[in-house]
Amino acid sequence: MYENKDNIQNISAPPGALWTVWLLWVLIYAAGYGAGALIGAMAAGQVLRLFPAAQQGLDNNWAVLASGLVWAATVGFVLSGFQSLLLHYHIPRFDWRRWVFASVLGLMGAVGLVAALQRLIADQANTFIYFTLYLSVLVAIAGGILGWAQHLALRDYLPDENRWIAANCIMAAVSTLLVMLWFAGRRGNGVYLDFDFFWLGGAIFLGIGLATGFVLYSLLRHPQPE
């Protein structure tokens, strides 16, 4: 549905202004993820205190899921809050509350899916390459969940917002695949540090930011109904 074309400022001239939008969008993804992930890690650490088994170093799926959801909610809130400032500037009547709400729920759903199924794919994959492929597919689905949630907040303002879902899905998978292969080159023994997953998340979010920034650039440059 495309109802609010008049809400979009005509910023197609000069074109350089739109490239500024893309650059700012990517920088927001980097800064928003960095700040949100660090704050989220502290919040998730407090959640883990509620699970004695996890504190003793024992596997606890509920602890992983609960801490992951808290982390996702924190990252989603911080990142989408930054994003809403840029979106509201170019779409004056943009409903930033719906954007933040959709982003938080979408990211919680995406991270919840990965947290719930990562042990399953680890058990099914008998080699690193199979694990990487399975994980990439899983993260692609998770990216699609985030993109779908966000597109619900965009569809009243921008045309052809389905590209937003595709950008999230594809770049989440590509980023995961590339970073995991890079990990394999550095840590061939299969032992990974907790901080490695911070960089994995950063690469995924940066990849999504690069792709969705181009989609946003295109949608703002050509605000035409389908």
Topology:
Layout: H1 15-48, H2 52-55, H3 61-90, H4 96-124, H5 128-154, H6 162-186, H7 194-221
Helix pairs in contact: 1-3, 1-7, 3-4, 4-5, 5-6, 6-7
Give a quick precis of the structure:
With 226 residues, the chain is mostly helical. It has helices spanning 15-48, 52-55, 61-90, 96-124, 128-154, 162-186, 194-221.
**N- to C-terminal distance:** 9 Å
User: How many β-strands, per DSSP?
Assistant: 0
Determine the fraction of residues in helical runs and give it as a percent range.
over 70%
Q: Major sheet: size, sense and barrel closure? A: none
Report the uncertain regions. Answer: 5-14
User: What's the overall average pLDDT, rounded?
Assistant: 80
Instruction: Enumerate how many helices there are, as a single number.
Output: 7
Please characterize this protein's 3D structure.
With 226 residues, the chain is mainly α. The chain has seven helices and no strands. Helix 1 (15-48) runs antiparallel to helix 3 (61-90), helix 1 packs antiparallel against helix 7 (194-221) and helix 4 packs antiparallel against helix 5 (128-154). The radius of gyration is 18 Å and the shape is globular.
